[in-house]
């Protein structure tokens, strides 16, 4: 409906101020009852690859729309009931475009944009002049195919799907012709003298509607039919035997090759002179109908039909894209796929090409590996890995290829953890002021991390924590004897410690334990006291010396020294000047070979054997045993001193 400048609109009947519009059946001012809309969705789960029928498009269908509901790797195909392939037949995929079939023109669309999710589609205005079948070339799960078309006449197709059909399966419907034939016969009987109805639009009646609905049948002539061949409007008949219709040539061929069509041109001429006169001089009912004649039936030259490029195989960086290149020939208004050798006179276009949508971001290692998280055994180490764009900015990891991401954490093995006994120095004071007492030291088993020589585990040979001491004899008398204080209850700070207090009489070499009342006249020493070993600090601990690296001519041995706090954790609060040595020399004496009485020179000139370096052979090593042994000892001593 068009709007006029004055505000009034023009309806589809071309009357100013009319509000009539064309309904979905194509009828101006209609109420959508003159046609039947058939639609559905094909959702069947398909298992086998290949062609599967989707829906049948009946004869006379208009407004045809077959559309995939989502983009997929499947293809739609179209063929006639006679077996002629129209689109995507015989496993050959056609390019998107326009294809003639079933008396109408189908538009084949296949969106190829990367961002598009739309599927393939067939669109046609119709009407069709034969039954057509829509197929799916199944290659991946069916996303669903929506189909819709319009059939003129309310009783053309039953709106109900027969019970034996599954949902989504198309049903057949044929446009009836009985009403049309009856009407034409009655019309002919009523008016045989009227002009021929050839070329006019026949009408179809249905039993459910009194209205008539024009149905456009397939054109009998191609689009190249000349305008002057359209039958003129009925004229008053001028019957004359002096004039008749005569063919005066033909129209131009519709194509230059590949089988076109042309039509004869009829003119009204004088019967005797053959001079062309106005058509009104001839009987229009006697004018011959122009029949289509084939022309230029030789095939067109073959050509390379180039398909669209596929999506790039990579979203960034260098990828590949492909396209289909087929050798085709046009014949009878159809493009046919032929053998490639027919296009050998033409250079074949490339079927693959490189592509790059954008430059990829890349992984960058920003730092070196950190130190291992443990000094011995298996730990972990880390490094900084970032995704960096092509302009140097740090971006989200998703911008880079996660499959190529370098590791930013890995295990590290620092070797097995050895254990050793760590000892303090002996205490300076004896536990007893007179007589026998003890001096003590601390002993702890800890993991060894820095020794350059292999050390075994602590084992069961725990070093002694106490050693005897004697500050001289005590005078014989009765007295309280106090034992040594137990260890302080805490390592540092203020704690408590206990000791045993007994009444004794000391003789010359022995102690005699008495009942406590014997010492009751004496003040009993306390058996518990507070203790404060030291402020919570640290002191040096060291392991035993390792074995000497050599048995003679000077070697070395090592031990590990650590600064430990009172809770036996590593500390750096010890006085560096008091740190015990960690390495010292050992076994400085010369190496003396063992004397073997059976090792003698049995050859009178063994010095020549030595000079010739023949001692490496078993024969000479035995014959000149003493000389070869001396040389070997000197060589070993020389190498050991290096």
Describe this structure in words.
The chain is mainly beta and 642 residues long. Among the domains are: 35-152, Jelly Rolls (Sandwich); 246-295, no CATH class; 301-357, TSP-1 type 1 repeat; 362-414, TSP-1 type 1 repeat (Single Sheet); 419-426 and 435-446 and 465-474, no CATH class; 477-533; 539-586, no CATH class; 606-635, no CATH class. 7% of the residues lie in helices and 32% in strands. It has four helices and 41 strands. The chain has a six-stranded antiparallel beta sheet with strand order 3-12-5-10-9-8, with no helix packed on it. A four-stranded antiparallel beta sheet has the order 4-11-6-7, with no helix packed on it. A hairpin with a 2-residue loop joins strand 21 (325-331) and strand 22 (334-337). The model is unreliable at 155-239 and 451-455 (pLDDT under 50). InterPro entries: ADAMTS_ADAMTS-like, ADAMTS_spacer1, PLAC, TSP1_rpt, TSP1_rpt_sf. It comes from Otolemur garnettii. Residues 158-244 are annotated as: Disordered. Pfam families: ADAMTS_spacer1 (PF05986), PLAC (PF08686), TSP1_ADAMTS (PF19030).
């Amino acid at each position: 409906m068009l709007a006029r400048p004055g505000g009034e609109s023009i309806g589809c009947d071309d009357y100013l101020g009319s509000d009539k519009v064309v309904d979905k059946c194509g009828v101006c001012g209609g109420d959508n009852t003159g046609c039947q809309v058939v639609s559905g969705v094909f959702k069947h789960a398909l298992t086998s690859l290949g062609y599967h029928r989707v829906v049948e498009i009946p004869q006379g269908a208009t407004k045809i729309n077959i559309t995939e509901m989502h983009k997929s790797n499947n293809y739609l195909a179209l063929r006639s009931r006679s077996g002629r392939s129209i689109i995507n037949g015989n496993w050959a995929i056609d390019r998107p475009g326009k294809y003639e079939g079933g008396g109408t023109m189908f538009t084949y669309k296949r969106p190829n944009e990367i961002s598009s999710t739309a599927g393939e589609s067939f669109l046609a205005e119709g009407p069709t002049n034969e039954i057509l079948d829509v197929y799916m070339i199944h290659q991946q799960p069916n996303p669903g195919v929506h189909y819709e078309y319009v059939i003129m006449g309310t009783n053309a197709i039953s709106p109900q799907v027969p019970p034996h059909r599954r949902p989504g399966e198309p049903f057949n419907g044929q446009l009836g012709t009985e009403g049309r034939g009856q009407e034409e016969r009655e019309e002919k009987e009523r008016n045989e003298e009227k002009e021929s109805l050839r070329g006019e639009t026949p009408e179809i009646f249905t039993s459910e509607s009194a209205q008539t609905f024009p149905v456009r049948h397939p054109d009998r002539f191609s689009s190249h039919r000349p305008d002057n061949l359209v039958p003129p409007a009925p004229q008053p008949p001028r019957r004359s035997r002096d004039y008749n219709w005569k063919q005066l040539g033909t129209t131009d061929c519709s194509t230059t090759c590949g089988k076109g069509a042309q039509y004869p041109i009829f003119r009204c001429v004088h019967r005797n002179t053959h001079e062309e006169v106005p058509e009104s001089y001839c009987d229009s009912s006697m004018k011959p109908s122009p029949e289509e004649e084939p022309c230029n039936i030789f095939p067109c030259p073959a050509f390379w039909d180039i398909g669209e490029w596929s999506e790039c195989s990579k979203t960034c960086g260098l990828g590949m894209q492909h396209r289909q290149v087929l050798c085709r020939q046009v014949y009878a208004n159809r493009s046919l796929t032929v053998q490639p050798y027919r296009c050998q006179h033409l250079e074949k276009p490339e079927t693959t090409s490189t592509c790059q949508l954008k430059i990829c971001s890349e992984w960058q290692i920003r730092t070196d590996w950190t130190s291992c998280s443990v000094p011995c055994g298996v730990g972990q180490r880390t490094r900084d890995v970032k995704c960096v764009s092509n302009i140097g900015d740090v971006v989200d990891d998703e911008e880079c290829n996660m499959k190529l991401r370098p590791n930013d954490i890995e295990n590290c093995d620092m070797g097995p953890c050895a254990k050793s006994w760590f000892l303090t120095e002996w205490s300076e004071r004896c536990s007893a002021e007179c007589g026998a007492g003890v001096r003590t030291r601390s002993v702890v088993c800890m993991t060894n991390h820095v020794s350059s020589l292999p050390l075994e585990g602590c084992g069961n040979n725990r070093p002694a924590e106490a050693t005897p001491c004697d500050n001289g004899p005590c005078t014989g008398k009765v007295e309280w004897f106090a034992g040594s204080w137990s260890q302080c209850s805490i390592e540092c700070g203020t704690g408590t410690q206990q000791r045993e207090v007994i009444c004794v009489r000391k003789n010359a070499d022995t102690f005699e334990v008495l009942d406590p009342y014997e010492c009751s006249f004496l003040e009993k020493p306390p058996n518990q006291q507070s203790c404060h070993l030291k402020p919570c600090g640290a002191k040096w601990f060291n392991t035993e010396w390792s074995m000497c690296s050599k048995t003679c001519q000077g070697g070395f041995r090592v031990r590990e020294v650590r600064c430990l706090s009172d809770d036996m954790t590593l500390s750096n609060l010890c006085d560096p000047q008091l740190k015990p040595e960690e390495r010292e020399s050992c076994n400085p004496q010369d190496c003396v070979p063992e004397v073997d009485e059976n090792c003698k020179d049995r050859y009178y000139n063994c010095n020549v054997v030595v000079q010739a370096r023949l001692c490496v052979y078993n024969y000479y090593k035995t014959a000149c045993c003493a000389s070869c042994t001396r040389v070997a000892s000197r060589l070993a001593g020389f190498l050991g001193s290096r």
